[in-house]
Amino acid sequence: MTDAVTASALGRVINRPVARRRRAAEPCELCGDPLPAEHAHLLEERKDLVLCACRACALLFEPGEAGPGEAGPGRFRLVPHRRVRLTGPPPSELGVPVGLAFFVRRSDGTVVAHYPSPMGATRWEVDPAAWERLTSRYEELRSMRTAVEGFLVAIVRGLDERWLLPIDDCHRLVALVRQEWTGMSGGQLLWDRIAAFFAELDR
C-alpha cells in the first residue's frame, strides 16, 4: 500500500462524523448497496477492522431475534451507538503510565489497553485483578460490550475525559493521532483536534 493510499484511508476515518454520516454514493462494505446518510458499523473482530454496513446487513448481526450478534468466519459484531460520559478512574489505577488510552475487553476475557501513537495503537494486556477491582466500583464498565465498546481516558494537556464509547470512535482517535502527530509531543494542531474530538462527543 502506498503512502498516498494510506493517508487517504486515514483521512476518511478521521473525518467520519460522530453521527456516522457519509455520502450516500459510498457502498455497504458487505453487500455493495449504496449507504444512507446514517448507517451502522460492524467490527470484523479477528482483523480488528470496522466496516460500514447498510441496515439489511446490520440486522444479520443484531443481537436478539433479528440475528445472532456475531457470525461468519470474521466474527462480525454490530457496533452499538451508546456514548456515556464517566467520572473516574485515572489510567494509573490500571497500571497505564500514559494519559491517553482506551481499554477493550476481548472475547477470551482479557482486557487490552491501547495507546494511540504516531505508529498506530500500542497495546498491552491489563492486569486482570486491577480490571476486576475497577469494574467492581463502576457499573458502566461492567456493562462494556466485548470487542465493540471501549473505555477511553484522556487526562493530558488540560483534558479530563472518560467515556464508554463505540469502538469506531476509538479507531477515529487512533487515526487522528497517527495522521496529525508532529515533532516529539504531537504538536499543537493535534491537541487542538483531540480537544475538538471530545467536544463533539459532548454535543
From TrEMBL:
InterPro entries: DUF5947
A Pfam family of this chain: DUF5947
Domain of life per record: Bacteria
Protein name: DUF5947 family protein
